[in-house]
Amino acid sequence: MSDEHHEAEGDALPPRENLIADGGSAAGADDVTLDPWGSATVSDYRDLFEQFGIEEFDHILDEVPNPHYLMRRGVIFGHRDYSPVAERLREGGDAAVLSGFMPTGDPHIGHKMVFDEIIWHQEQGADAYGLIADLEAHAARGLSWAEIDEHTRSYLLSLLALGFDPEEGELYRQSTNREVQDLAFELGVKANFSEFQAIYGFDGETDVSHMQSVVTQMADILYPQLEEPKPTVIPVGPDQDPHVRLARDLAARMRYFKVTEAFASFEATAEERVLMREAYEQLGGDDADVRCEDAAEHLDQHHAAEVGAERAIEKLANAGKEPLRPRVRFLDRNATPEAFDALIEAVEGEKRVFDEHVDAFDLDHEAAEELSREVEVENGGFGFYPPSSIYHRFMTGLTGGKMSSSVPASHISLLDDPEDGYQKVKSATTGGRETAELQRELGGEADKCPVYELYAYLLAGDDDEFATEVYEECVGGERLCGGCKEQAAELMRDFLEEHQEKRAEMEAVLDDLDLELESPRRG
Ligand code: TRP
Ligand code: SF4
Description:
Layout: H1 16-19, H2 24-27, H3 45-52, E1 55-56, H4 69-72, E2 76-80, H5 83-91, E3 96-101, H6 109-123, E4 127-132, H7 134-141, H8 145-161, E5 170-173, H9 178-188, H10 193-200, H11 208-222, E6 232-236, H12 241-253, E7 257-262, H13 270-282, H14 292-302, H15 309-319, E8 327-332, H16 337-346, E9 351-353, E10 357-360, H17 365-378, E11 388-392, H18 418-426, H19 436-442, H20 450-459, H21 464-475, H22 481-512
Parallel strand pairs: 3-4, 3-6, 4-5, 6-11
Antiparallel strand pairs: 1-2, 2-11, 7-8, 8-10, 9-10
């Protein structure tokens, strides 16, 4: 991890970047790649903000009611468009949470984070969905249906044992969800192979079912909105971000109308609109009778060097004496003729109707968005909100490298015998110094310590004070690794014991649910 992270802050918790080891030290010089089917490592989380436009979770933490400890501790580090979901949680409107699990092995403590995120959203009032990505496991990972069945059962037991309420929420397998398949088919109409190539690196060798599993995931992500559109959050690792971006795109492509701002009858880009607003206001705004040609002249005199100015001036000049007036525009994307008529009907106040758009002069943007969704839904459309996402950090492996299901000592499975769990923690690498003496003198390196991560991500649970105490005692040289690991190992043993007991209790609950636990599929 780079030293630029190490700025001091006076928070109750140690500085976030110090509190959490982000795997950077272990991941080495990996470039940032976001590959859903590749190895899930990220060497520097800052690149995700800069290169991919993921936003920092910290910036919206204040908007979240009663935030989960993974949010408070910066384990959930990023998001896309989480505000609408946070708002609904705060104010009590409809929202949903959904995530999916490929049943390729035993559920482990990395999956537990996502289970907890789903459950937390459910507790805050969101409709909750957990799905088993069995089609994806079969197509992209080549698992047999028998293997898939075994793991499916196990994932669901852990999700239930951790507190998922199946009465309130919904669990499903991709392979048995007809509505998801139908939605996938419709979404597939809006996506093509070149795009899959660009996003996922698919090529002529990629099998068709793998591609189908992508549209299936797109349908999973939008499934909570089938009955009624609502802000939906998808908690995942950042490796899934390409899927989230595509889903956001497809959601928009399915919409009947696109709502934009406009100033005159012609189309303008976002940059041109900024200039037009500027001219409009400089020339007297609402109180004046501003004409396009006046705005052209104003821009020519005062803003000619700005981006987009040349085209804006040209367009305005061509429009001559047409009034320049701000308005919201509904562009027809996929609307049926009936829906387009219904929209015209529904727009209140002054409006102008064109072939492929409607301009409304007395609506603000938000009201227009709402109206367009209403009209769409009433006329047979989906009216999807673009799905939101939150991203959690990957845990560092207990052996120092990345946490990998193929290296048992590197991770803790939720099915590990509690004694094995204890032993794995006892044998973990640490951020400790060579000798106890040095440790007392220099303090340990908690931010490079997989054991500290266990405390922060799991063992300290909701108890921030405890997590902070471990951190501060460690870096202050009061805590030595032997005792620290013993404590963590015991907590891990207790956690596994309790979790496995709950899993056993959930067997009956699971069998009572309307789920196909044995797939009749062959192949
Ligand atoms: N692709 C995900 C994985 O690799 C699984 C998945 C399928 C998923 N559908 C989803 C995740 C919908 C989130 C939302 O684990
Ligand atoms: Fe890690 Fe604990 Fe050692 Fe600190 S004292 S380096 S947290 S094992």
